[in-house]
Amino acid sequence: MKVLNIISSAYRAVSEEQDDTIVWLSHALHNAGADLAVLLSGSAVNYVLPAERSSPITIGGRAQRNAPDAHGEVRKLAEKVPVFVIREDLEMRGIAATPDEPFRAITRATLPAFLLSHDHVWHW
Q1: Taking the model in full, what pTM does it have?
Q2: 14 and 70 Cβ atoms separated by less than 8 Å
Q3: pLDDT tens digits, residue range 6-58?
Q4: Which of 2, 52, 53, 84 is the most exposed place for a label (fewest CB within 10 A)?
């Protein structure tokens, strides 16, 4: 069973959690044996940029200085499972249309066939 996780919202719950919840879930699913691929779309394409990070947060007098490294976690995931990025979403944000390895770009025109190549598509 081939599963595609589509992550379209960047930095989901990163202030409350130690990392992006769906990136974490993708790691867990892969470690449990799932045949998994990930597609970054929308604002989540920022995860391909090494310098793009979430800022530490201060609440009252307490500072949470250990902001999550979403790029690092997605890069680690891409070493285990294929991680794709929608080219047009990169371009819309002024990011190079061809991301660095290990990320793979696809176009919106090829998206329907790409989705059909998976048994389950989960959009987060």
Answers
A1: 0.86
A2: yes
A3: 999 887 666 556 667 889 899 999 999 999 999 999 999 998 988 666 666 77
A4: 2
Range of the domain at 86: 2-54+68-123
The owner of tokens 């595609």 is 4
Cβ(85)–Cβ(103) below 8 Å: yes
Q: Domain holding 119: CATH number?
A: 3.40.1260.10
Question: Is residue 21 within 8 Å of 66, Cβ to Cβ?
Answer: no
Is residue 63 domain-resident?
no
Residue 24 CA neighbour count, 13 Å, CB half: 11
pLDDT (0 to 100) of residue 58: 77
- Going by C-alpha positions, the residue among 95, 96, 101 that lies closest to residue 82 is 101
Please count the structural domains in the chain.
1
Span 80-100, pLDDT tens digits = 999 999 999 999 999 877 778
**Mean pLDDT, rounded, for 52-68:** 72
Taking the C-alpha atoms of residue 95 and residue 89, their distance in angstroms, rounded to an integer, is 9
Q: Which residue has the tokens 């391909």?
A: 48
Q: Are 23 and 70 in contact (CB under 8 A)?
A: yes
